[in-house]
Amino acid sequence: MKIPRLTLAALAAATTLALAVPAPAEKPEAPKIGTSAPDFTLPPAAGGAPVALKDLLAKSKAVVVIFDATKCPYAIGYKGRVADMGKEYAGKGVTFVTINSNKTEPAAEVAEDAKKNGFAFPVLKDEGNKVADLYAAQKTPEIYVLDPKGTLLYRGRIDETHEDPKNVKSPDLRNALDAILSGKPVPAAETKAFGCSIKRV
Amino acid sequence: MNPSRTPARARRAVSALLAALSLAALVGVETPAFAEPVKHLKPEDYQSRIVAGRKGRVLLVNFWATWCEPCREEMPHLVAAAKKFPSRDLAVVLVSLDSQKTGPTQVPKFLKEKKVSFVSWLAKTRDPQDFIDTVDPTWDGSLPYTLVYGRDGKIATRLPGLQTEASFTEAIRKATGAR
Asked: Sign (positive/negative) of CA torsion A70, A139, B66, A171?
C-alpha cells in the first residue's frame, strides 16, 4: 500500500512533537488499606543518623506515621494530643514518627517545634516532599498506621476536632490503635484527614 | 432637637451627607455584602440553602478557610474571574470551614480586608467529615475545593486545590455555555 508523502510527513512531525514533549510524571497512587506502605529513610530534623521505616517496624507492634507541620493551625491544635499519645502508646509497643514535608518549614524550625511540644519520638524532615509523594499525603496532620510487616491498616485523621480534646467524640486513631493491639479489625480504617495542604516543591 | 436651633455647620454636614447618599443611589452604589456577618450553614441545609438558591444560574461554591494559605492565595483570582460574568448568569458563594470558635470573627475580617463581596457562609458542624461527605462524597477534604454547578443544579466541574483566574474562568465559561 502506498502511503501519501504528506501523511508520512505529518506522522513524522507528530512523532517528533510527541518525543519533544515529556509525558507528565505519574502521580503515585495513595497506598490502599491492606497493602504494603512505601518504605522510606529520612534524616531527623534535629540531625543525626537517618531513620529507616523498616527499623521502626522491626521493633514495633505498629508504627504511626504522621505528616505534620509547624505553622498550620490545624496541626498545632493536635500537638499536645500527638505528644501524649506518642508517650502513652510507646508503652504498648507502638512507635510514633512525624514527617515534615513542607518546603516552607526548615529542619531547624521543625526540630525546635518538636522540642517545644515534647515529642519523644523520631521527628523527620522530608526535603523535596519525596515521602509525602510516595504516600500521596496531602494534608497536615495526616495519619498512616502500619503493622510490623508494613501493611497499611489505617489512614486519615487523629479525630474530628483540632480544638479542645475534651470534646472529641470520634477518636479514630486511638480506636484504630486499640483494635490493632487487641488483634481486632480496625473499625473505621479510612477517615478523611482535614487540615492544611502540604507545601510542596 | 429643634431643627431651627441646629448650628449652621451641622445643618451643612447633614445636607452634604444626604446629597452624597442620593448620588450614591443614582449611580447604583451598593452596600457591600462583606459588611454582613457570616451566616451559619449546617450540612443538612447545603442543598436547600446553597444549591437551590442559584435560581437558574450557574453556581460556583468555593470551600475555604482563613487558615488555609492556598485558599487565601486564590481568592483574588476567583474575584477576578467572577467579574467577567453577569450576575444573571453566575452566582458565587463562599463556604468557610473555619471553626465555630474563630470563624465568626476571622471570616468577615478577612473578606473585609480583601474587599471580597461574595455571600459567605460558615460550615456549622462539629465533624468536618460530615460536612465534606454531605457536599460531595468524592471530595477528600483538601482545601481549597470548588464546585461549579450547572443551571440544572448538577455538579458540572470539580476544582480541587489552588486555582488560577484562568481555571476558574474556564470552568464557569463551560458551565454557562458562554464563548
From this structure: negative
Considering the domain architecture, whether residues B24 and B87 belong to the same structural domain is answered as no
Question: Contact B68/A197, CB-based, under 8 Å?
Answer: yes
Residues B14, B84, single domain; the answer is no
How far does the CA of residue B142 sit from the closest CA of chain A (Å)? 7
Question: Are B89 and B1 found together in one domain?
Answer: no
Q: What is the pLDDT of residue B114?
A: 93
Q: Report the number of secondary-structure helices (H) and strands (E) in chain A.
A: 6, 9
Domain shared by B55 and B143, yes or no: yes
Cell of A132: 509525602
- Asked if A101 and A126 touch (Cβ cutoff 8 Å), the reply is yes
Residue span of the structural domain in which A163 resides:
30-197
Sort out which chain A residues have CB atoms less than 8 A from B131's CB and list them: none
- Cell numbers at B125, concatenated: 458542624
| Residue range A164-173, pLDDT digits in tens | 999 999 999 9
Cα–Cα dist B41/B68, whole Å = 19
Domain match, B169 and B108 both: yes
| Tens-place pLDDT, residues A171-184 | 999 999 999 999 99
Pair type for strands A51-52 and A196-197: unpaired
Q: Is residue A98 part of a domain?
A: yes
